Amino acid sequence: MGCTCACDKEKLFNSGVLVEHTEGAVLPPKEAWEAKKGGYAVIECPKRIPCNPCYTSCPTGAVLPFEDINDVPRIDYAKCTGCGICVSRCPGLACFVIDMTYASDKAVVKLPYEMLPLPEKGKTVKCLNRVGEVVAEGEVIAVTEPSKDRTYVVSVVIPKELTDQIRAVAVNAPACLRPEEEC
Question: What DSSP line would sit under 35-94, residue for residue?
Fold first, then answer.
């Protein structure tokens, strides 16, 4: 049985690890989400920590003001454009954007990425769930270079039914990362 009141949802969300029964507490309304071209930001920040770059970087005011610097972020989905600025600014890599309007069976997820090698547009990457397990493959359609820090935003086409699971991507790295003459 799912949560029925806001206080129950907040309690689940603050438990630390997001699992199936806590996801609905942080997602936009389903009807709006499925119709919103460009998608919506989703912030899976389950702990109260002193952090607010999502709020200070949001150009539309969609991330609501914090009463306390330790508050868990909340989003006004009527103001969210899915621009993805919060994705590159979140130091906890807790922000991402999901666009459900890409195709009838595919969605686009814009994810933070701070590893090497960088994914390349047009290439296939492994799509990972919250615990790092490969759950699908996806096609990279964009890699956005950060303007203010080192977090890239990687846009990946994924199966629509996995939007509630995919939270990271992995690039197949070469077997040896040392200079060629040392391998």
Answer: H-TT-EEEE---S--S--HHHHH-TTS-BPPPSSTTPPP-B-TTT-----HHHHH-TTS-
User: Which range of residues forms the domain containing residue 139?
Assistant: 6-172
pTM as predicted: 0.80
The total number of structural domains in the chain stands at 1
Closest CA to 136 of 113, 105, 159: 159
- Whether 1 maps to a domain, the answer reads no
Tokens of 80: 């969210």
pLDDT digits (tens, 9 = 90+) for 131-145: 888 999 999 999 999
Give the pLDDT score at 67: 94
Contact 86, 45 (CB under 8 A): no
Q: What is the 3-state secondary structure (H, E, C) of 124-153?
A: EEEEECCCCCEEEEEEEEEEECCCCCCCEE
